[in-house]
């Protein structure tokens, strides 16, 4: 049986297979995951819902990984942002990791970000 839901996550990729495999890992860890393909769908989801965490996958374009953190902060200043790509170093991004480190590294990053109080996460930017 899955753990009680820990958070709401918006997870965006451009590849369905990767989105499904990583999304499954996050859901099995007890998170409520909304899976989105592409930048336009991510922007729409950010306008329509409130999420604890935005994960930008490595199959998104560099431009998408640069643009979406701004949209996320406009929609919700308490959202945490994790980029699964080394090019994720951006002043609006809370953490960037290399997705090749595996699903365990992603889960550790998610847990670390969600454990930080929102005020502390915002101050760290």
* CATH-defined superfamily: Response regulator
Global shape: globular
User: What's the pLDDT, averaged over the residues?
Assistant: 89
Using the coordinates shown, work out and report the CATH topology: Rossmann fold
Weakly predicted, low-confidence segments: none
Quick one: CATH class?
Alpha Beta
Give the structural class. Answer: alpha/beta
Q: In angstroms, what is the radius of gyration?
A: 13 Å
Number of strands: 5
End-to-end Cα distance, whole Å, is 36 Å
Q: What percent of the residues sit in helical stretches (DSSP H or I)? A: 40-55%
Question: Number of helical runs?
Answer: 5
Strand order in the sheet with the most strands: 2-1-3-4-5
Could you spell the SSE succession in H and E letters? EHEHEHEEHH
Layout: helices, strands, pairs:
Elements: E1 8-13, H1 16-28, E2 32-37, H2 39-48, E3 53-56, H3 62-75, E4 80-83, E5 95-96, H4 103-115, H5 118-123
Parallel strand pairs: 1-2, 1-3, 3-4, 4-5
Description:
With 125 residues, this protein is of the alpha/beta class. The termini are far apart. It has helices spanning 16-28, 39-48, 62-75, 103-115, 118-123, and strands at residues 8-13, 32-37, 53-56, 80-83, 95-96. The relative contact order is 0.17. It has five helices and five strands, in the order βαβαβαββαα.
């Amino acid at each position: 049986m899955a753990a009680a839901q820990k958070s709401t996550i918006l997870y965006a990729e451009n590849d369905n297979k990767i989105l499904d495999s990583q999304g499954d890992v996050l859901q099995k860890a007890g998170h409520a995951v909304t899976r989105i393909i592409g930048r336009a769908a991510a922007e729409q989801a950010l306008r329509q819902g409130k999420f604890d965490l935005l994960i930008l996958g490595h199959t998104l374009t560099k431009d998408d990984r640069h643009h979406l953190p701004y949209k996320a902060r406009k929609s919700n200043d308490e959202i945490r942002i994790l980029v699964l790509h080394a090019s994720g170093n951006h002043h609006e991004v809370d953490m960037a990791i290399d997705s090749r480190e595996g699903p365990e590294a992603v889960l550790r990053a998610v847990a670390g970000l969600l454990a930080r109080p929102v005020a502390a996460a915002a101050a760290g930017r």
